[in-house]
Amino acid sequence: MITDPADLQARMLAAAPDIELSFRKMFGGIMGYAAEVPFASLSDVGLALKFFGAEHSRALALPGAKALQYEPGAPVSKSYVVLPAEVVEDANLLHEWIVTSANNLQGKSK
Fold first, then answer.
1. Which DSSP symbol is given to 70?
2. What distance lies between CA 13 and its chain's CA centroid?
3. Lower CB count within 10 Å: N or C terminus of the chain?
């Protein structure tokens, strides 16, 4: 599983050049933003994208996906889902999930 935040950032940028993405270092990892709205956590846990409602359930249903939890005993995120390696390593699948998360987030913020 790819867990280097800088590598995850490079993969996101390569997979989604059509999406306005920006990144900021945060707590030893990187926070990703779509149109200036936080939507991705890149850390040693992996690449987690933010989802709500049915899209959250759909993302969690991916084989190998899990709710974001930075450390054992730490709170489990109710909105961020760590994507499985198969998605992160496939530029087409990663693009699909980045777009889904960004669109889901934009719909939630309206």
1. S
2. 12
3. C
Q: Where are the beta strands (DSSP E) in 27-109?
A: 29-34, 37-43, 46-50, 66-67, 80-82
- The domain total for the chain is 1
Q: What is the pTM of this model?
A: 0.92
Q: Convert 49-66 into a string of H (helix), E (strand) and C (coil).
A: EECCHHHHHHHHCCCCCE
Domain of residue 95, residue span = 5-109
Residue 35 CA, chain-centre distance (Å), reads 14
pLDDT in tens, 38-97: 999 999 999 999 999 999 999 999 999 999 999 999 999 999 999 999 999 999 999 999
